[in-house]
Design goal:
The chain has 320 residues and is an alpha/beta fold. The protein has two domains: 204 residues, Class I glutamine amidotransferase (GATase) domain (Rossmann fold, 3-Layer(aba) Sandwich), CATH 3.40.50.880; 103 residues, Arc Repressor Mutant, subunit A (Orthogonal Bundle). 47% of the residues lie in helices and 14% in strands. The strands form three sheets. A seven-stranded mixed β-sheet has the order 5-2-1-6-7-11-10, sandwiched between helices. The longest helix is centred in the first third of the chain and has 20 residues. It comes from Puia dinghuensis.
Length: 320
């Protein structure tokens, strides 16, 4: 039997704690129906007997406290809400215990922005971490030694698991179940809880917001110019001439500040503009493509699919 410790972190969301508890216990029920023994022993654990969640909205009676658990097999870190810096400070009492459990071989499962606390412990240093696209900029600034990824839902780094997206933790739980008990049981859980097991990417959901907290005034001017002229025939030379900057130095500074090359940034701004048009306007797809500065329809379709993982037509059907 695998012992699972779901942390009742202060300022965590109640929904993901309860969902994790229910899903792992229901898997035991599925196994029992098949005449097999339960696989998970699930506990909600805290520092004290009663913990406050979701910025004081809930109080929960935990099933155990960390001082009484010498060894666990899996630690589940729930989503955090509110100010991440404050949440990490409130929960630092869990850090040493969690590090000890990891050293003893425990798997660490971080649900969405619970990864802020996981990164705070140092366990994500030099590892990949799936982070919600809206939190990536803040996460990267706080934890530069972590490779933040916003285009995939799940990362698996030798027993340290992360996921990006508020409810994508359900897909991570299915992934964990599959690793422990096989594909058949994971598919059964997917069907019983009606979770789309094939959801792998955050890309269709991303709203591109450029990183602007880099402190480089020239780069910020370039970003604003691109965003205000996304339908123009822009080039790097045109930007440099307009802003009176040397190309080589400008490109280096732009990449350092935003995480994108100039042309990548322009592509993402154009794709974001096209997405809004596809959602709300009556224009044809061809008209929208011309509006964002492309004359080659097929070239833009390739760029659009690169950043959203679906075609413009599929996007319109999904979000119109």
């Amino acid at each position: 039997m695998k012992h699972v410790s779901i942390l009742a972190l202060r300022d965590a969301t109640m929904s993901c704690i309860d969902s994790s508890y229910q899903i792992f216990n229901r898997v035991n029920t599925f196994l029992n129906y098949q005449g097999r023994p339960s696989f998970y022993k699930v506990e909600i654990v805290g520092i004290s007997d009663v913990e406050t969640l979701d910025s004081g909205l809930y109080r929960i009676n935990v099933t155990n406290t960390i001082d009484k658990i010498a060894k666990t097999d899996m630690v589940v870190i729930p989503l955090l809400c509110g100010d991440f810096s404050q949440a990490m400070e409130k929960n630092k009492g869990y850090a040493d215990w969690m590090l000890k459990q990891h050293q003893q071989g425990a798997e660490i499962v971080s649900l969405c922005v619970g990864s802020f606390f996981l990164a705070f412990t140092g366990l994500l240093d030099n590892r990949r971490c799936a982070i919600h696209w809206a939190a990536k900029n803040d996460f990267t600034l706080m934890f530069p030694r972590v490779q933040a990824i916003d285009d995939t839902i799940i990362t698996d780094e030798n027993g340290v698991y992360t996921c990006g997206g508020g409810y994508s933790y359900l897909n991570l739980l299915l992934y964990i179940i599959e690793k422990h008990l096989g594909r058949e049981l994971s598919v059964l859980a997917s069907k019983m809880f009606e979770i789309d097991i094939e959801r792998k990417s955050q890309q269709p959901f991303i709203i591109f917001v450029g990183q602007k907290r880099h402190g480089d005034a020239d780069v910020l001017k370039a970003q604003e110019y691109i965003e205000n002229h996304s339908g123009d025939q822009l080039s790097v030379d045109h930007l440099c001439k307009t802003l009176h900057l040397g190309r080589r130095n400008f490109e280096r500074r732009f990449k350092k500040g935003t995480g994108n090359s100039v042309m990548e940034y322009l592509q993402r701004v154009r794709v974001e503009f096209a997405k809004k048009q596809l959602e709300s306007s009556r224009k044809t797809i061809q008209e929208i493509i011309y509006d964002v500065g492309y004359n080659d329809i097929n070239a833009f379709r390739k760029v659009f699919k690169k950043h959203t993982n679906i075609s413009p037509l599929e996007y319109r059907r999904k979000y119109t």
